[in-house]
């Protein structure tokens, strides 16, 4: 039977269209949320996030990345739909992290070939949380 060891979360917004954060290029990823989580030997961290982003021009390609201690451990790409359409992104990831205290971050970047013609912004919601189980 698994035991909950620790819980962490970061919520920037719970509603749709409550934010307007431009998604920049891959050289300047935008940090959306961070929290710390303690893990034990043989345990795991169950991470989940919900983010809403909106196409503001063209057909942007964005990439959401989960970092552990500043290093990427998981990413998922998404493409914008029609102009001004809000796309909800839900990510769940099980991290078999080494024992210790870890800083988790969620970042986003515009991965489009031409980010001047294909733009997007984070509009909300933005929530990122994790549960350490052992």
Would you kindly provide a written description of the structure presented here, covering whatever features stand out?
By secondary structure, the protein is mainly beta. It has a single domain (4-133), classed as Sandwich (Jelly Rolls). Helix content is 0%, strand content 66%. The protein contains no helices and nine strands. Strands 1, 2, 4, 7 and 9 form a five-stranded antiparallel beta sheet that branches. Strands 3-8-5-6 form a four-stranded antiparallel beta sheet, with no helix packed on it. The radius of gyration is 15 Å and the shape is elongated. The N and C termini lie close together (9 Å).
List keywords for this structure.
0% helix; Exosporium leader peptide; mainly beta; Jelly Rolls; five-stranded antiparallel β-sheet; 9 strands
**What name does the CATH topology carry?**
Jelly Rolls
Q: How many strands?
A: 9
The description of the largest β-sheet is: 5 strands, antiparallel
Q: Helix and strand string, N-terminal first?
A: EEEEEEEEE
Shape: elongated
Percent of residues in beta strands? over 45%
* Second CATH tier, the architecture: Sandwich
Radius of gyration: 15 Å
Summed over residues and divided by their number, the pLDDT gives a mean of 94
Poorly predicted parts: none
Helix content: under 10%
What structural class results from the helix and strand content?
mainly beta
Number of domains: 1
Head-to-tail CA distance between termini: 9 Å
Question: How many DSSP helices?
Answer: 0
The CATH top-level class label: Mainly Beta
């Amino acid at each position: 039977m698994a035991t909950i060891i620790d819980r962490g979360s970061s919520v920037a917004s719970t509603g749709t269209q409550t934010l307007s954060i431009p998604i920049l290029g891959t050289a300047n990823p935008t940090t959306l949320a961070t929290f710390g989580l303690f893990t034990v030997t043989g345990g795991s961290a169950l991470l989940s996030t919900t983010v809403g982003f909106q196409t503001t021009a063209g057909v942007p390609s964005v990439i959401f990345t989960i970092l552990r201690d500043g290093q990427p451990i998981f990413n998922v790409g998404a493409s914008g739909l029609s102009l001004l359409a809000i796309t909800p992104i839900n990510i769940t990831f099980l991290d078999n992290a080494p024992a210790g205290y870890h800083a988790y971050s969620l970042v986003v970047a515009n991965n489009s070939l031409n980010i001047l013609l294909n733009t997007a912004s984070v509009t909300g919601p933005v929530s990122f949380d994790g549960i350490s189980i052992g």
